[in-house]
């Protein structure tokens, strides 16, 4: 099983980034996919989740209206479009696949929002 995140980097406040997570080794379309983040000195927190059918999503209150999660089951990939980025969005972003008692994690990608 692999979850490989990409798309992180340094961006100025107000800017945008698009994270991608390419999955392999499991039945991607059967899993809920999520993005979590962990800021320095803080615990890992849910940012956004999209369910297996792609029609249902959840967002943390802090990112509602700015971030959009989507998935392409044909490409086994989940995306996180991040707009209007703020310094408080600085964190390592992790991709997660979840089904019943099974959880898979990616290695994380750093997002830094700074001028």
Shape: globular
- Please give the count of helices: 0
* Arithmetic mean of pLDDT: 97
Q: How much helicity do the residues have?
A: under 10%
What kind of oligomer do you see? single chain
Rg result: 13 Å
How far do the termini sit from each other? 37 Å
Structural class: mainly beta
**Strand residues, percent:** over 45%
**Segments where pLDDT lies below 50 for 5+ residues?**
none
What string gives the helices and strands in order?
Answer: EEEEEEEEEEE
Number of strands: 11
**In this structure, how is the largest beta sheet organized?**
7 strands, mixed
Condensed summary:
It contains no helices and 11 strands.
List keywords for this structure.
115 residues; 4-stranded antiparallel beta sheet; 7-stranded mixed beta sheet
Write up what this structure looks like:
By secondary structure, this protein is mainly β. Helix content is 0%, strand content 55%. The chain has no helices and 11 strands. The protein has strands spanning 2-6, 9-11, 17-24, 32-38, 44-50, 57-59, 67-72, 77-82, 91-99, 102-105, 109-113. Strands 2, 4, 5, 6, 9, 10 and 11 form a 7-stranded mixed beta sheet that branches. Strands 1-3-8-7 form a 4-stranded antiparallel beta sheet, with no helix packed on it. A hairpin with a 5-residue loop joins strand 4 and strand 5 (44-50). The termini are far apart. The mean pLDDT is 97.
